[in-house]
Amino acid sequence: MRHQGNPWLTSNLFVLGIGILPALLMIGVLLYFTAWAFAFSFTDLALVGRKSVEWSWVGFDNFERLFTRRGFLESLWTTIYFVFFSAIVGQSLLGFILAASLRGMRGTLRTMIEVSIMLGWLVPDIVAAFLWSATTSDTGLINALIVVPLGFQPVNFINDYALAVVTIANIWKGTAWSYILFSAALDSISRELIEAAKVDGATMWQRVSLVILPIIRPHIATNMLFITIWTFTYFPLIFAMTGGGPGRQTETLAIFLYNQSFSRGNLGFGSAISVAMLLIVGGLSLIYLRMLREPT
Predict the structure, then answer these.
(1) CA 260 to CA 188: how far, in whole Å?
(2) What would the mean pLDDT of 65-89 be, rounded to a whole number?
(3) What's the pTM value of the predicted model, to 2 decimals?
(4) Is position 163 within any domain?
(5) For residue 238, which of 223, 251, 257, 228 has the smallest C-alpha distance?
(6) Does an H or E element contain 55, and which?
(7) Dmax over Cα atoms in the chain, in whole Å?
(8) How far is CA 270 from CA 62, 71, 217, 240, 275, in A?
(9) Does 21 fall in a domain?
(10) What is the CATH number for 69?
(11) How wide is the angle at C-alpha 284 spanned by C-alphas 280 and 288, nearest 5°?
C-alpha cells in the first residue's frame, strides 16, 4: 500500500517552506563564510597594508607553515591539555559525580549546591576572569587566607601556574552544563532497575559501570561532543585572564588564531589555522557521533 503523508503537511507545503527559510538562510551564511575561510587560507591576505588589497595565491604555503614554524604545534598541544583536563576530565567527570551524589538529596542543601554550580555558568566570562585573576594573584584570596597564614611566601598562581589556573577556572565555569545533562539522564533511569542490581549483589562500582553508564552512554557522548567543541574553540576567559601568556603558556589555538589574524594581521595564515581547527573539531565530532549510535 502506498505510503500516505500527513494531510496537513501535504496541504501546507508553502507554510512549511516559509518556516524553514530562516534555518536555510543561517546555513547558507555559515557555508558562505566557511568557503571564504577555505579560499583565504590559500592566500597571503593581510589585515592592513598592500597585501590587504593586492593579495595573491600562495597554494599550500600557509598549511606548510603550520608544521614547519613554531607556534601552531605548541598551541595545539596546549589546547589538547586544556580540553582534556578542563572538559573531558574536569567538567564531564565532576558533573557526573555531582549529579550522582545529589540524585537522592532533597531540601535546602541541594538547592544551595545547585545554585553554587549554576553560578559559574551564569557569571559573564569577563567577570569570571576578573574573579579568578584577583583570587590567584600574589595579593589574592588564596594567599591571604591559606598561603601566608601557613607561613609561606605569597605565590603568584596566575603567573607561575597559568595553564593550571585557567583550566580550573574553566572547570568551575562550565561544569553546570554537564551536571544538568547528567542529572536529567540519571533521573530517566528506573530506580527499580538499580534496586534489582543491588538485590543481585552488585557493588556500587558494578552498578555504575554495568548498569548506569551503558544506559546513559548516548548522554555521555552528547555531553562530550558539546563540551569538547566549546572548549577546543574557547577564547574569552583565557584571553581576559592571561592573553595567552605568560610567554605562550596559555596560548591555545583560538588565541594563536587571534594573534596571527588581528595582532599581526596575517589573515591568510589565520584562515589556514581556522581550517585546521575545523578539521580537528570535525574529526572529534565524528568520533562522538559514532558513540551516539546504539551498539549492534
Answers:
(1) 47
(2) 93
(3) 0.87
(4) no
(5) 251
(6) none
(7) 84
(8) 9, 12, 37, 20, 9
(9) no
(10) 1.10.3720.10
(11) 165
Is residue 62 in some structural domain? yes
Look up the domain containing 275 and give its range.
44-104+178-292
Summarize pLDDT for 168-203 with one digit per residue, the tens: 999 999 999 999 999 999 988 888 888 888 888 888
CA distance 248 to 78: 9
Cα 198 to Cα 210: distance, rounded to the nearest angstrom: 12
In DSSP notation, 5-52 reads PPHHHHH-HHHHHHHHHHHHHHHHHHHHHHHHHHHHTTB---SSSGGG
pLDDT of 9 reads 59
**226-252, pLDDT tens digit by residue?**
999 999 999 999 999 999 989 899 999
Cβ–Cβ < 8 Å for 207, 194:
yes
User: Whose CA is closest to 157, among 250, 35, 266, 86?
Assistant: 250
Asked if residue 111 belongs to a domain, the reply is no
Please name which of 258, 232, 236, 246 lies closest in space to residue 136, comparing C-alpha atoms. Answer: 246
Peptide bond into 149 cis (omega under 30): no
Peptide bond into 246 cis (omega under 30): yes
**Are residues 194 and 114 in contact, defined by beta-carbon separation less than 8 angstroms?**
no
> What distance in Å separates the CA atoms of residue 261 and residue 266, rounded to the nearest whole number?
5
- Tell me how far apart the alpha carbons of residues 186 and 141 are, in angstroms, rounded to a whole number: 36
**What's the total number of domains in the chain?**
1
* CA 32/CA 20 separation, integer angstroms: 18
CA–CA gap between residue 291 and residue 212 (Å, rounded): 16
Contact of 100 with 220, CB cutoff 8 Å = no
Distance of CA 246 to the CA centre of its chain: 22
Asked if 48 and 265 touch (Cβ cutoff 8 Å), the reply is: yes
Give bridge partners of residue 57 from the DSSP assignment: 43
In sequence order, the β-bridge partners of residue 43 are 57
Q: Which amino acid is at 75?
A: S
Q: Is the pLDDT of residue 99 over 60?
A: yes
